[in-house]
Amino acid sequence: MYSSSVLETVGNNMEFKVKDTALADQGNLLIDWASVHMPVLNQIKQRFEKEKPLKGAVLGACLHVTKETAVLVQILKAGGAKVALCGSNPLSTQDEVAAALAKMGINVYAWRGETAEEYYWCVNKVLDHKPTITLDDGADLISTIHAKRTEALKTIKGGTEETTTGVVRLRAMEKAKALKYPLIAVNDAYTKFLFDNRYGTGQSTIDGFLRATSVLLAGKNFVVCGYGWCGRGLANRARGMGAHVIVTEVDPVKALEAIMDGFKVMPMSEAAKIGDIFVTITGNSGVIRKEHMIKMKNGAILANSGHFNVEINIPDLEGLATSKRTLRPNLEEYSLKNGRKLYLLAEGRLVNLASAEGHPSEVMDMSFANQALCVEYLMKTRRLKPKVYNVPKKIDDTVASLKLKSIGVTIDVLTAEQKKYIASWEEGTV
Ligand SMILES: NC(=O)c1ccc[n+]([C@@H]2O[C@H](COP(=O)([O-])OP(=O)(O)OC[C@H]3O[C@@H](n4cnc5c(N)ncnc54)[C@H](O)[C@@H]3O)[C@@H](O)[C@H]2O)c1
Fold first, then answer.
1. Closest ligand 1 atom to 230 CA
2. Integer distance in angstroms from the first to the last C-alpha of the chain?
3. Residue 121 contacts by C-beta under 8 Å, 6 or more apart in sequence?
4. Helix (H, G, I), strand (E, B) or coil at 314
5. What spacing in Å lies between the alpha carbon of 41 and ligand 1's midpoint?
6. pTM value?
7. Phi and psi (nearest 5°) for 257?
8. How many angstroms separate the CA atoms of 97 and 357, rounded?
9. Closest Cα to residue 121, out of 158, 153, 87, 159?
10. Contact, 244 vs 219, CB < 8 A?
11. How far is 409 from 402, CA to CA, in rounded Å?
12. Tell me: the pLDDT tens digits for 94-150?
């Protein structure tokens, strides 16, 4: 079903491997459309073009190859960097966009439908460019460097990580004293997770779900597994579409929050019996397993929007099934031994990217503005210790201010008296 072109080398150390370069014109149109909705990145681009703060940087990026990522890549290039890019999920690459990037002179190695072997071939090709800074989404690039390509550490100054699961992996590496270079947790910037994880994942997961199924959401029992930043967004959007939303959690505080936000909370063993739709979004593994699947109603639909395809135990589903067939793109029907049918979307991979286009450009504008400014920060900062760092508050505030400016909103500023008041402890009841 899937194919890719051969590796093409275009003089001067520039090479790429994408599905089909003939798709480049279509890709350019998609990138133009994304750019219209990314005013923060465009403001940064104007400065980068003048100041060239990334001159001399070689950026090794493992990001979902979407139209928004292409806008980011153009800005990094405008700042003077050389960029090598691979996808951060085998099913998330938009082939038109990859083709357009190849034509723009970006070293891009990505096509939709990579096998696991091909996926890591692409990751390794990026590392062959000897990056000075890495940009990752899920930490596969970073873990490959630490486990198999340690020679790459010689040139690397620092890196950034885009998503919750990647940051969790990095913090585990830091704890185990395995981390060999400094990394900035872009995910943990307020202007990232409050908007991208919540509103971006919320909307795009519904988008991916509907493109794959086209079923009615109103009146359905919609089970959201995990009430973190992404889960909150998804639960609210599903409610907005008229679904009865049920939340499953393992964290008592989040469970309580879901209840007070107006959702039903119950364990998966109970939710399994009544859900029509199940979406995992936890960053954990084995959230939906065999013991849940056998309880599910005939026709239940399962999807995942968490980073890796381990949240729904697919080997369990395969084991319970007597046959399976693909009914339409990203929709597989499993016939179970108990006579019921279950439906799995996008092979259990990120449904919003595999079956739709990922997050809307407006939220990626802020996430990727953090990426661009953090790369600039790493270029300007003297060697940092190998630790996981938060995005500097100044960058977070800059991104928010640029976004407000772009939508024409001004806000109040603290008076001198207010600044003094909130910094003092002497004043109390008057
Ligand atoms: N689809 C996308 O485009 C996209 C975008 C951003 C983040 N993500 C990914 O989504 C996942 C969640 O991210 P987040 O920012 O919401 O993380 P988060 O840490 O804010 O929330 C995860 C929640 O899942 C809960 N959880 C863990 N195990 C569970 C289980 N077995 N059953 C029920 N709940 C469980 C946790 O208690 C937590 O409340 C991560 O893998 C992240 O990388 C995906």
1. 16
2. 74
3. 109
4. helix
5. 27
6. 0.95
7. -60, -45
8. 11
9. 87
10. yes
11. 10
12. 999 999 999 999 999 999 999 999 999 999 999 999 999 999 999 999 999 999 999
